[in-house]
Amino acid sequence: MIRFVLPTLAVFAVGAAIAAAPNPARTALLDGYAAQAKAQSPAFAGFSAERGRALYLGPHGGGKPETNACAACHTPDPTAQGRHQRTGRGIEPMAVSANPKRFTDPAEVEKRFDRDCPNVLGRACTAQEKGDFITYLAGQ
Known about the structure:
Blueprint: H1 2-20, H2 24-40, H3 49-57, H4 71-74, E1 82-83, E2 90-91, H5 106-121, H6 127-138
């Protein structure tokens, strides 16, 4: 029994280490948002996972009532698969630990923020909000 458990645990440990390792593409994306946030507000002092969590979980006013939080489609557990509110289509988990490719393609990230921020917030997200959001989900 031990022969089977130890290799399995080793695979999980390696997988967790890979998911937790900084991704250069995600780091570059966050660096870009940090530069934008600093340009928008000289008082910018860095991203906050707690603010990102609040953005993810909501609720927010201003957007569509049925999507008043990212969690409305993505579930309160960012490691779980979500479901599109209207179409019912499955959505890959938002947490980087469950989906290591999340937030690594700048064009895809911007496309999603451009579409989803108005639906959830009723406006475009700021660079700080984008960075907070990614910082939170990169730690999940």
